[in-house]
Write a structure and sequence with these properties.
The protein is about 50% helix and about 10% strand. With about 675 residues, it is of the alpha/beta class. The strands form four sheets. It has a seven-stranded mixed sheet with strand order 7-3-2-1-15-16-17. The protein has a five-stranded mixed sheet with strand order 8-9-12-14-13, with helices on one face. A three-stranded antiparallel sheet has the order 4-5-6, with no helix packed on it. β13 and β14 form a beta hairpin. The radius of gyration is 29 Å and the shape is globular.
Length: about 675
């Protein structure tokens, strides 16, 4: 009895006979099954791929694209390891700039370089060496899939033929020379640089909040739609856009309000073709004499490109959609008393004659009482003009094909949480009680907590897009998107209130406070993190919770590593609005085969700066955890899947050798 069948029993084969018969259609004989086992066993012993974790991108597409291109500094580290003793630091920076931005850098080099053939020859040899290094932990099959079709054979030959061997030296050099003499040096350099970028990140994890604040969320989504292995754990800013795509009018109003608050119209207009003219027309007519000072665009303070006239118009649009939002939210809260959010219906608590509003028993002076569309006797009723505007905006969001394509990608690649290689990923919170136990939350008519809560929410959200969902259930699911955006028991928010109204209309900062849920207060305790990890089935001594959502104030000495290393909070403030708060411009957490590294980023300046001066955005890199031994594919989730395949193939071998299933000499077509 051979190694791969010695633990197989006739009873096990008999119970799995239908599966084995199907498997035999792909592996029809002993030779085919044995070859596949050999292949899978070899893969199990390769080093695990490099995982990158980022959070809270908030539309900062240039910084995000740069960290994809430079693999959060990992490419420069590889180049330095290879050439650190033979190249100057300035030369390393220029080579890295070429790898990150090959088209732009080549154009610059052609304008300056006199001996282009010599440059191409030297550079191609260097790029092949770098590519060979980043591809070394993958199978030839996986590398082959990453290669561009037009150059796949040539690149594969160069990667797997060492130019250092005497017999292959002429062959290797001749390939390089022919690439140059046939005029293919530039496209080949671009192709191999893109391969280096692609192979430097094996799996990309995004812990939510792609949307809002920055100008390029749609560009990030376009990039991800073309990207290979990525996943996302939805954030509340993603959820409100997803809700807008379902036709939730309160979500649509929030999306528009936040976009106007940060002066970000590019995603709306250029990305998704949202027609803002009806809102602009309504705002100009309704708030023509209102300076709307409290609604000035935040980014206008940071040298925004909008003209003063446009900024004035945006402020009026900002106020107009905010009032509509408060009306829509009030109606939504009244429709769902089970959410216990009536304290957030504030329009009927205003006394416009006195210029005050009463919240939780406290009366505050208001800094703005100009509300031409609010009827004090029925403050949540939309005027005919507002209702007409809401219908137009609703149509614009629900017919956008680009938005639908991006939301489909979020659905197919995302969920409320992820468990990858015993790392538990979720955007913000896990609702807890004061004693640290999991809190029961009602989702529709079902009470659930922990893993079940996250699963139920995920299923409910998907039902809003399913054609076979009954209309009443679909309407509840659409409404629930808004609750997840700002509800007190939402795992994506988990605060007692979102004080949007107060921040616009009340100067007293006491009214702006938002009380965080118990998770934020208890998550620094190792035993609490272990309880949550147990709930989700994370195993081993090196398991972690990884979150985003709450910016880490690095400048004030806060650490992203908490609870004795059990928790990693990686919202480092990609959004420019948070740079002063965090003191940096974002984190990337990198999980190598031998350690965890945390990369701090500096603000991204421009592609031109990166190309011309070789500047980068990696501020510092520090190892936060060293694994006891280098992890192989065998130690990963993928390894478990491959091992189960080996076990099934071992049963098939047994079945072939004992005549339970007949061998075939040809591979069957399935």
């Amino acid at each position: 009895m051979t190694l791969h069948t010695q633990n197989v029993t006739p009873e096990k084969v008999e119970s799995d006979i239908r599966i084995l018969e199907l498997l035999a259609q792909t592996f029809p004989n002993i030779s085919a099954a044995s070859t596949e086992i050999i292949n899978l066993e070899a893969i199990l012993n390769l080093p695990k791929g490099t995982e990158h974790f980022v959070a809270d991108l908030h539309g900062e597409h240039e910084a995000f694209l740069h960290i994809l291109k430079n693999a959060s500094g990992n490419i420069k580290r590889k180049v330095t390891d290879i050439y650190g003793t033979s190249m100057l630091d300035s030369e390393i920076r220029q080579l890295c700039a070429l790898i990150y931005y090959p088209e732009e850098k080549l154009q610059s080099i052609k304008n300056e370089q006199k001996d282009l053939e010599g440059f191409y020859n030297i550079t191609l040899h260097k790029l092949v060496t770098v590519c060979r290094s980043v591809s070394s932990k993958y199978t030839r099959s996986k590398v082959r899939k990453a290669l561009p079709r037009e150059y796949s054979y040539i690149i594969e030959e160069l990667l797997h033929e060492s130019g250092g061997e005497y017999d292959k030296q002429a062959y290797f050099n001749r390939i390089i020379e022919t690439i140059i003499t046939t005029g293919q040096a530039e496209p080949f350099i671009i192709a191999i640089c893109n391969v280096i970028q692609k192979l430097s990140i094996d799996q990309l994890h995004i812990l939510g909040d792609i949307y809002d604040r920055g100008p390029g969320a749609h560009i990030i989504m376009d990039t991800l739609c073309r990207y290979g292995n990525w996943d996302i754990q939805w954030g509340n800013h993603d959820i409100v856009w997803m809700g807008a795509a379902t036709g939730n009018d309160a979500c649509i109003a929030n999306v528009l309000r936040v976009s106007l608050r940060y002066g970000n119209l590019a995603t709306l207009e250029d990305g998704y073709g949202i027609n803002l003219m009806p809102l602009a027309t309504f705002a100009m007519e309704t708030y023509a004499d209102d300076p709307c000072e409290e609604f000035a665009t935040r980014s206008s303070e940071e040298g925004n490109v909008h003209t003063p006239k446009t900024l004035k118009l945006m402020a009026k649009m900002h106020k107009a959609i905010s009032i509509i939002q408060f009306k829509l939210e009030g109606a939504l809260i009244a429709r769902h008393p089970e959410w216990e959010m009536d304290h957030r219906r504030l329009l009927h608590r205003m006394d416009l004659e006195k210029g005050t509003v009463t919240i939780d028993g406290t009366t505050y002076d208001m800094c703005d009482t100009s509300f031409p569309t609010i009827d004090p006797s029925d403050p949540y009723k939309l005027t005919p003009e507002e209702l007409h505007l809401v219908h137009k905006l609703h149509h614009s969001f629900t017919v956008s094909t680009a938005l639908k394509r991006h939301i489909d990608a979020l659905m197919s690649h995302g969920c409320m949480y992820g468990l990858y290689n015993n790392n538990l990923l979720f955007h913000a919170s896990m609702p807890l009680n004061a004693d640290g136990s999991l809190k029961e939350v009602t989702v529709k008519d079902k009470k659930c907590k922990g893993k079940e809560l996250m699963t139920e929410i995920g299923m409910l959200l998907r039902s809003a897009f399913n054609d076979d969902t009954p209309e009443a259930d679909k309407e509840y699911a659409r409404d629930y998107y808004w609750y997840l955006w700002c509800g007190p028991d939402s795992p994506l928010y988990d605060k007692d209130r979102m004080t949007t109204f107060e921040r616009y209309f009340i100067k007293d900062s006491e009214a702006h406070k938002e009380e965080k849920g118990w998770y934020y207060k208890l998550r620094d305790r190792e035993e609490v993190c272990d309880m949550i990890l147990d709930e989700f089935g994370a195993k081993g001594a090196d398991r972690h919770i990884i979150n985003g959502h709450v910016p880490v104030r690095t400048g004030r000495g806060e650490s992203p590593i908490r609870a004795g290393g059990r928790l990693m909070v990686i919202d480092g403030g990609f959004a420019k609005a948070y740079h002063k708060t965090t003191g940096i411009a974002g984190y990337t957490l990198i999980y190598h085969s031998s350690n965890f590294e945390l990369v701090e980023h500096e603000p991204f300046t421009s592609v031109e700066e990166a190309v011309s001066n070789g500047t980068d955005i990696v501020r510092s890199t520090k190892m936060v955890e060293q694994t006891a031994r280098r992890k192989c594919v065998r130690d990963t989730d993928k390894g478990l899947v491959l091992q189960s395949q080996i076990d099934e193939l071992s049963e098939l071998l047994y079945a072939f050798r004992h005549g339970i299933i007949k061998e075939s000499t040809t591979r069957s077509r399935v």
